[in-house]
Specification:
The chain has helices spanning 5-16, 33-36, 40-44, 55-63, 81-84, 128-142, 155-161, 170-177, 179-186, 195-203, 216-221, 226-241, 244-251, 259-269, 276-291; strands at residues 18-23, 48-53, 74-78, 88-98, 105-110, 120-123, 147-150, 164-168, 190-194, 207-215, 271-273. By secondary structure, it is α/β, with parallel strands linked by helices.
């Protein structure tokens, strides 16, 4: 059966849109403002198709062959993915970063065991970058013999399976809120290391977890410039940061943590600008990842 002009036009328009793989955690909520709220949501839908997923899945979508039905053109990717996926370019302007405590990347260990004594880490692998950062910290400063064991993000089973636990994103925020209850229930003292804070202390550079990246081939075929695409994403970030109270109201029913914690997290813990200092931090991350053999060499 022949397709109508309207059907063909709709398919052409859909094919011309850039497919975005985005993160379904709290931390990118300000970056996603225009994609989630009118009046700009409808306008962006004429240029982009958006799908939400875990951070590691964003990287996987950009690594798929471009003709794969689940392939993405743009992703909010863990920075480790840039070193392992060929043909990606950073979209300037935005980042998921921290210049202080980040709260959402935690290494939890028992108080009676030092960092140098830790032999196994049960690791939530939902973010390649957080895993790579933690591996660097152990390789370079703590215990290079430590082994990382993939594990679903639930603190008690993680600590049953290993000496320490790596929690990422919203599960880390939950664990901090439940810290006192957990210690009273289990009767043991735990140490909660904020890994962004540890990284900043040891390297003197910010922790940069994720950036927007685009396939070079998708950029070339999009008939848009990198600056034009960057303008869409930075405008969304700026409006998101101007509407923090609305984001707090929207996210409070979704997460079992106080609204004040959400507000502080979005305004003080996460830094959303890929500025010169964060770019320097990224370069240091890639240098140390290559030196320790965790990632292949990558130059910015």
């Amino acid at each position: 059966m022949n397709k109508s002009f309207e059907e063909l036009s709709g398919q052409t328009a859909n094919a011309s849109k850039l497919k975005i793989a985005a993160i379904r955690f709290l931390n990118p909520a300000p970056l996603m403002w225009d994609f989630d709220h009118e009046p700009h949501k409808s306008e962006l839908e004429t240029r982009y198709n958006l799908e939400l997923m875990l951070p590691a899945a964003c990287a996987e979508r950009l690594a798929l062959p471009i003709d794969h039905p689940e392939a993405a053109d743009i992703g909010l990717v863990p920075v480790a993915a840039l070193a392992t996926t060929l043909g990606l370019r950073i979209i300037p302007g935005c980042a998921i970063a921290s210049k202080r405590k980040v709260r959402s990347i935690l290494l939890v260990r028992r108080a009676n065991q030092s960092l140098s004594e830790i032999k196994t880490i049960a690791a939530d692998t939902s973010s390649r970058s957080s895993l790579a950062y933690t591996q660097i910290l152990f390789q370079r400063w703590w215990n290079p013999e430590a082994v990382f064991l993939p594990h679903y993000p639930d603190l008690d089973p993680m600590l049953d399976a290993a000496d320490a636990a790596l929690l990422i994103g919203d599960p880390a925020l939950f664990a901090l809120e439940e810290r006192q209850n957990r210690e009273e229930r289990a009767g043991e003292e735990l140490i909660y290391h904020d890994l962004a804070e540890e990284w900043i202390r040891l390297t003197g550079t910010p922790w940069v977890a994720a950036v927007w990246a685009i396939r070079e081939s998708s950029l070339e075929s999009s008939n848009r410039t990198l600056e034009e695409i960057s303008a869409d994403f930075t405008a969304s970030r700026d409006r998101g940061l101007a509407n923090i109270e609305t984001l707090v109201e929207e996210w409070s029913p979704r997460l079992p943590i106080p609204s004040d914690t959400i507000r502080t997290y979005l305004t003080s813990n996460i830094f959303y600008y890929l500025d010169a200092e964060c770019q320097s931090g990224l370069r240091r991350f890639y240098e140390l990842a290559a030196e320790t053999g965790i990632l292949p060499p990558y130059g910015m």
